Amino acid sequence: MSGSIPPVWDSIVGQKPVVEMLSRVSQTPKDIAQSWLICGPAGSGRSNVAKAFAMALNCPNHGDGTCETCRHIQAGTHPDVTVLNTDGVTITISQVRELMETAEQMPVTAPWRVIIIEDVDRMTERTTNVLLKDIEEPSAHTIWLLCAPSAQDVLPTIRSRTRIVTLAVPSLSSVAQFLLDTTPVDEHKARQYARLAQGHIGIARMYATNTEAVRMRNNLVDNLVSMRRTSEAVMLAEELYSSAQKQAQQDVDAQVEREQAEFRRANGLKPKDPIDARLRGQYNAIGKKDDVSRRVTRLTRDIIDRALTTIASVYRDITVIHNGAELVSGLINQEFSEEIAGLAVRVTNSQALQAVERVDVAKRRIQGNTPVVLALEALLTSLIF
């Protein structure tokens, strides 16, 4: 970053034009738009951009990253910055109405009350319409930051009432440099994980810090390139779903434990201290069965979506081979170059393109609440050419 850009933006990878614009706006907020739609593909960092913007707007130094305001916003504990990052499949009307009540309140300590809604595309049309009036006519000291994969993923009524910011897919080199700066990996591994993540910052970081995730990805590619029979496709679909469920359950259980530990710490309780009756309801709500179930369902779908992206990458590599573009575009799955070259002998370029389209269809079916196993079985059996 240049010297004129405050440090809070240093963690935003590969978005220089957007960072420069938002930094400039935050330093001269007299006529600032109060409703924003931050768009970018998975991994572009749209939620991180929204949070950095909130820090830049409310920090006395426009985002120094070290003051009490910045620290609290980063930790999610600032009273004037509210983030809705739903753990469910959709954002509910009750969640939105609660945000609207918050948006009406004057900020407590900061210049602006900032409301961030991650994945606003998860709203139904009815829920979006409830939010519409506040987006069109925000309270005088409130700024709405909505995040979505693209402007087309939200209703036209929202698009027309927000200032749209579009993020780019970060370059592999910028993601690799980010990993070198923030994780304990060498340059070779940083480049490898950036390539496998296809520019997705969060996934790249996960690969750099979780060897099991890399192993699971490699196992999927290995099974995919060796798949020959319908029975193998069905078995792979079931394995993908069961492993995704198991991983999601483990991750959510660990998250609940962390939240319970933080609750104890915030209330001055040691790990084995009894919970006071006045706090018991709040404490028990952290691990409420229905809430945990919703989180597991959401995370399972996210893991499956990541697996589908991996499957698409194999057939993308086949098109690269058929078009003789290895030197120009490179293979994503370089570790399986021989196996993918062998698969390219059986799969034509046209079939590989069809396979990528079928992955997109599977994603839409799952988003539309088709049973995940059935969607996976339909996809994988269609990939036996």
TrEMBL record:
AAA+ ATPase domain segment(s): 32-170
Residue spans crossing the bilayer: none
Pfam families on file: DNA_pol3_delta2
BP GO terms, sorted: DNA-templated DNA replication
Protein name: DNA polymerase III subunit delta
Lineage: Bacteria, Bacillati, Actinomycetota, Actinomycetes, Bifidobacteriales
